[in-house]
């Protein structure tokens, strides 16, 4: 069972230590370590970024990704069919209107009543409008899905990364970040307080353990956050080259400050609620890893042992060591090394889970 910690929390960010004369940002903010420079050098200073490691099984991620593939394939096929169907019509219309050739689209006003004229004009207007909307708002979907240039594309990301049991997802803030960019969030001035409040609200909602554990990373896009495909490829490449540890991307929040450069937020140290959220995240991650290994029953037996022992009272240091050994033996009987499995699944010392 994870021990509780105490911290000054997010409120400390508005203390005088965060003023313009401070040598370092106030807790829970901290200057991003130099080890992350190969990654932060590729990011835009105008946005806030959140990275996390999704440990859902690769087979599940493959199924999720098949949905946008089918949708964009359908849209692409629909567009091709529409072009095949409508291009001859537009060719005839242009030939009749600008070259004077008579064909099925030619209209003689003298042969039409006002009602017939307005019906033809209305029908053509709706046709033009439909094709305009299709070209402007629907056609870009498959184009961006495959060839996205500014921030990469889902297809280029999957081609570079493939499907893995542990994948790095990087989200980039949307338009709300204009209220934070260029503002000294460590200032006690009204503008700084407002920007800090907006940042905390967005980050807390986006790093909720329930969100990160119940949804695969591909589904974390919403009105406030978008996935940065290029950044995801960059992060994965750096981990594959062993230039940065995978653990460095476990719930990593980054934003740029004019004075301190790239700032990371220590989510765990940002208050009691954040610590509870982190403990919940660890439990969810442990459960998902056991389920993926076909050992989900071990998770519930682990919970039963923890609950039973803590309810007995007199949970001394000596008693804790006995329970820890009991849990290790339980997992060993089922062919699982508890310490290694916890570290691999959660990314922290196994003592937190005992």
Descriptive terms for the model:
52% helix; alpha+beta; 354 residues; 6-stranded antiparallel beta sheet; 6 strands; 12 helices
Major β-sheet, in short? 6 strands, antiparallel
- Helices and strands, in order, run as EHEHHHHEHHEHEEHHHH
Structural class: alpha+beta
- Shape annotation: elongated
Write down the overall mean pLDDT: 83
Give the CA-CA distance, first to last residue: 5 Å
**What percent of residues adopt helix (DSSP H or I)?**
40-55%
Low-confidence stretches: 1-18
What gyration radius follows from the Cα positions, in whole Å?
28 Å
Please provide the count of β strands. Answer: 6
Beta-strand content estimate:
5-15%
Individual helix count: 12
Order of the strands making up the biggest sheet: 1-6-5-2-3-4
Structural features, described:
- The structure is a single chain.
- The protein is α+β, with helices and mostly antiparallel strands.
- The chain has a six-stranded antiparallel beta sheet with strand order 1-6-5-2-3-4, with helices on one face.
- The longest helix is centred in the N-terminal third of the chain and has 42 residues.
- The N and C termini lie close together (5 Å).
Please describe the topology of this protein.
Layout: E1 29-31, H1 37-40, E2 49-54, H2 58-99, H3 114-138, H4 140-147, H5 154-161, E3 167-173, H6 190-206, H7 209-214, E4 225-227, H8 229-240, E5 252-257, E6 261-265, H9 272-292, H10 296-310, H11 317-333, H12 338-346
Antiparallel strand pairs: 1-6, 2-3, 2-5, 3-4, 5-6
Helix pairs in contact: 5-8, 9-10, 9-12, 10-11
């Amino acid at each position: 069972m994870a021990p509780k910690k105490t911290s000054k929390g997010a409120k400390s960010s508005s203390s005088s230590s965060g003023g313009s004369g401070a040598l370092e940002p106030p807790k829970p903010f901290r200057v991003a370590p130099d080890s992350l420079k190969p990654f932060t050098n590729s990011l835009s200073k105008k946005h806030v970024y959140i990275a996390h490691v999704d440990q859902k099984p690769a087979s599940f991620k493959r199924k999720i990704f098949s949905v946008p593939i089918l949708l964009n394939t359908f849209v692409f096929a629909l567009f091709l069919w529409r072009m095949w169907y409508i291009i001859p019509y537009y060719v005839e219309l242009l030939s009749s209107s600008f070259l004077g050739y008579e064909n099925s689209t030619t209209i003689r006003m003298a042969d039409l009543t006002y009602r017939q004229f307005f019906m033809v004009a209305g029908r053509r207007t709706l046709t033009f409008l439909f094709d305009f909307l299709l070209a402007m708002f629907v056609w870009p979907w498959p184009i961006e899905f495959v060839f996205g240039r500014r921030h990469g594309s889902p297809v280029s990301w999957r081609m570079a990364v493939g499907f893995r049991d542990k994948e790095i997802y990087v989200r980039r803030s949307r338009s709300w970040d204009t209220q934070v960019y260029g503002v000294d969030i460590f200032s006690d001035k009204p503008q700084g307080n407002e920007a800090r409040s907006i940042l905390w609200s967005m980050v807390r909602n986006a790093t909720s353990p329930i969100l990160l554990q119940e949804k695969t990373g591909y589904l974390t896009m919403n009105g406030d956050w978008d996935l940065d495909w290029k950044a995801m490829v960059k992060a994965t490449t750096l981990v594959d080259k062993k230039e940065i540890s995978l653990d460095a991307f476990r719930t990593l929040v980054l934003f740029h400050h004019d004075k301190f450069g790239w700032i990371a937020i220590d989510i765990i140290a940002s208050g009691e609620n954040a610590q509870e959220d982190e403990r919940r995240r660890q439990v969810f991650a442990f459960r998902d890893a056991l389920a993926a290994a076909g050992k989900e029953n071990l998770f519930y037996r682990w919970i039963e042992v923890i609950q039973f022992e803590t309810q007995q009272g007199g949970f001394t240091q000596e008693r804790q060591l006995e329970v820890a050994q009991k849990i290790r033996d339980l997992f060993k009987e089922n062919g699982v090394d508890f310490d290694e499995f916890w570290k691999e699944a959660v990314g922290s010392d196994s003592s937190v889970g005992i």
